[in-house]
Amino acid sequence: MLLEASGIVKAFGAFRAVDGADLTVTEGEIVGLIGPNGAGKSTFFNCLAGDAKPTSGTIRLRGHDVTTASPESHARLGMARTFQVPVTFEDMTVRENVMVGAFLRHRTRAAAIAKAEETLLFTGLAPLANAPARSLGTPGRKRLEIARALATEPRLLLLDEALAGLTPAEVRLAIELVRRIKGLGITIVIVEHIMEVILSLAERAVVFHQGKVIAEGPPRQVVDDPAVIAAYLGHHMKRVRM
Amino acid sequence: MILLQVVVSGLLMGSVYALFSSGLTLIWGMMNVVNFAHGDFVMLAMYAAFFAYTLLHLGPIVFIPGAAALMFLLGVIVYLGLVRHIAKGPMLAQILGTFGLALVLRYSAFWAFTANFVSLPDTLVGGTFDLGGIRIEASRLLAGVLALVITLAMHLVLTRTALGSRLLAVSEDRNAAMLMGIRPDRMQAIAWGIGAASTGIAGALIALFFYISPTVGESLSLIAFVVVCLGGFGSVPGALIAGIGIGVIEALSAYLIGAVYQDVVVYALFLGVLWVRPQGLLGTN
Amino acid sequence: MRDRSLVIIGFFFIAAWPLLVHDVFYQRVGALVLLAAISASAWNLLGGYAGQVSVGHAVYFGAGAYASLIVYTELDWPPIAGAPIGVLVSMAISALIGTPTFRLRGHYFSMATIAAAELFRILVANWTLTGAAVGLMGPPVPRTIADLSFISPIPYHYLFLSVLIILLAMTWLIQRSRMGYYLAAIRGGDRAASSLGVPVLRYKLYALLLSAAFTSIAGSLYAVMVGFIDPDSALGILISVKLLIVAALGGAGTLFGPLVGAVILIPLEETTNALFGGGGTGITFIVYGAIILLVARFQPGGVAALWASLTRRSAARAP
Asked: Reduced to 3 states, what is the DSSP secondary structure of residue C268?
């Protein structure tokens, strides 16, 4: 059991964004968290990442209790994440951005550079290594965030709507990258509200609605679940494209 | 009895603090730029009130709409010309932008009016009330009451009018507000206008009973910061309570330890609050 | 390559300066330029590299200056012996300000720095130990070489130059190391940095403590050279403003930015003071305020960024 979250509640005053959600993630799988907007999946995600403190419930990462741990501790324990709206370090080059991640496991500059180069090659960003991060468009920044997170050598990677706002061609490239990351043995949890992505990538889908998990299972099965369809009927359901 | 008098005096001054601090909390609540020149805006309004009287024979109370309008304009200009740009920049630009503005305003006034302070004649709103042994200057009473009323009015405008809800929408979620057809840029300019207008009114009120000098801006800015931090950023009711509280604490400190140290107490309190409860007394976290 | 040769030429010019000019006034300006460069470079560690903007750095400068002259007036020690005490006091004050505010948004830290600077200025101005509003004086006649009391500015020039070299060398090493990258990440965004395992609070404090310590040393050096301090000359807002404008104008977050800023601003200030008398009318502040405003509005990277865009190469932020 790589990650175990049980009974997570996150309340803002009287409003419960997450109302008793559980999630277990086993090593090596790709789990998709889906649900309409406002379903609480992003809040849940932030609790998992240590960015938000759950009002109640526990989270265990590789056996350690990380419920109230800082994002830094999460990173050290092997969990990395990307952000819904990319927050790359604008002043630094692409390579330097990735080096920040690399320094977690490599103390010296030379080692960090080497790790960064390796990660840039893996993610296809090598040609842009010297470009300032601010010169990248959105797809480039999303890819850079992934590279930066990978450089911390995580066991678990949390992707927060990493594919939102991309063109179909870019989505296909991103899916291919995620598959290669899984090939490295990294476990992935991906938050998405684009069905297509979940159907192509996730081995297991967990559906959120109004702060609770309402369905769980293989994506194709979950998509046909009447409760899931009902939840999405209030919102546009993305046309499934193959 | 003297103690009670001191407290009352502090309450009244505190209302004025609450007024211009509400303006700061509105500005700060809307966007990530703190106005380091806020106290200097008040200073400018004080001089404007002074000249309105000496040149145009307009008493400060009559001048209040004029002060509000002038400062509203200044706020909008500062937003359009400076704040809008630094808000997108690095933290250095965000801090130094309004800090540089503060220096320019403060020392331009210093250069134009010299360090000597001026004041309006105390016959303008003359007399002292005696309420059960407590002596209150009429000017202070008037200023404090008006400040309180206007601050409450501000709160009502923000919470009960369409304009207010648009402003709140932008401060809460800029993107969502845009999707609803609200223009964040315009709302932020208006917020800066209103925030500055609050300093205009406060300045005119203070001019009634206090000395006017170019350097008051520095301590008034800090008082605004303390009030906003104590009251919870973005909260006008919080600023009201905190402002009055700071006014009382300041008055008591002056009385008990000496006027020289009254600022020290307020600043020490500020640092203390940051340690213990940075979300403010009324803030939630 | 061109930048590097410029640096080397500049260095030799600065090192040879007092020997090139024979007028004491110009030699003194040289020493003051270096002193400003030290203070601004110290500020730069925190404000430029770590992105935490202190607008009350005078408190550390003043701590160093006062510590030096207090050990002289109370204990008869050579003033420079007070420098370590100044450093300790400065680091303590800085921790007091930074620890609670570094977990909040950047504006809180900046506001706290003004409050702290003002607080201490008022206290010092009313305390007999610190000479109250009158201030303190150093040894009128040097007793030993340890008093560092020289008539000529030349020894000061080389003393300050040595300290500056040490500080810049340290900054350069930090810039290239993990700490440098972590500070740049913090500047780029706390939340993102934290998610990558950067211990944000700890590194902000490191930068703060170092910055406070070296600013304090600059203050002690100032007290030693000028021989007189009072609350305005050592703790006033002018000092805070001068530190940051020298760094910001030259280029915050760059290695030589503060030195460039000092070379531009200090001679200007000294010449106008000599020609038009002291800053009684506050024109200095108006000019400084305007410069700060313009830098913030148009070119936050200062002269360094301007230079970089003119030579169309990325500014030397991190190697």
From this structure: helix
Q: Mark out the alpha helices in chain B (DSSP H runs).
A: 2-30, 38-56, 60-78, 84-86, 91-113, 138-160, 162-172, 174-179, 184-209, 216-231, 236-257, 262-276
Which residue of C lies nearest to B115 if distances are taken between CA atoms?
A: C281
In this prediction, residues B136-149 reach a mean pLDDT of 90
B97 neighbourhood in chain C, CB within 8 Å: 293, 296-297
How close C107 gets to chain B, by Cα (Å)? 7
User: Residue C45 and residue C207: Cα distance in Å, rounded?
Assistant: 6
- Name the interface residues of C facing A (CB cutoff 8 Å): 176-178, 181-182, 184-185, 187-189, 191-200, 253, 314, 317-318
Q: What 3-state DSSP class applies to C279?
A: coil
Q: Would you call B90 and C112 a contact, using CB atoms and an 8 Å cutoff?
A: no
Nearest to C181 among A49, A71, A100 (CB): A100
Instruction: Describe chain C by its helix, strand, coil percentages, rounded to 5.
Output: 75, 0, 20
Segments in A50-186 forming alpha helices (H): 71-77, 94-102, 109-123, 138-150, 168-183
Query: Does the domain formed by A1-78+154-242 have CATH 3.30.465.60?
Result: no
How does pLDDT run across B163-172, given as a tens digit for each residue?
Answer: 888 888 887 7
Tokens of B8: 């009352």
DSSP state of C46: I
The interface pTM score, or ipTM, of the predicted complex is: 0.90
**A91/C188 CB distance under 8 A:** yes
What amino acid occupies position B263?
D
For residue B89, which residues of chain C lie inside 8 Å, CB to CB? 296, 300
Single pTM value for the model: 0.91
User: Worst-scoring range by mean pLDDT, A123-132, A210-219, C152-161?
Assistant: A210-219
Q: What value does the mean pLDDT take over residues C186-214?
A: 96
| CB of C300 closer than 8 Å to CB of B93 | yes
Most confident of A148-152, B2-6, B155-159: A148-152
Residue of chain C whose Cα is closest to the Cα of A107: C178
Residues A69, A53: Cα–Cα separation, whole Å = 8
**Do the chains contact at B86 and C252, CB–CB below 8 Å?**
no
Which tokens go with C77? 């020690």
Which residue ranges make up each domain of chain A? Answer: 1-78+154-242, 87-153
> Across the interface, do C194 and A71 touch by the CB < 8 Å criterion?
yes
Q: Does residue B229 belong to the interface with chain C, where contact is any CB pair within 8 Å?
A: yes
Predicted confidence (pLDDT) per residue in B241-261, tens digit: 999 999 999 999 999 998 888
> Which of C99, C126, C286 minimises the CB distance to B108?
C286
Q: Say which residues have a Cβ less than 8 Å from residue B109's Cβ, sequence separation at least 6.
A: B40, B43, B44, B47, B214
Q: What structural domains and CATH numbers belong to chain B?
A: 2-276 (1.10.3470)
Residue C272's contacts (CB-CB under 8 Å, 6 or more residues apart) are C284
For B114, nearest residue in chain C (alpha carbons): C281
Distance from the A159 Cα atom to the nearest Cα atom in chain C, whole angstroms = 12
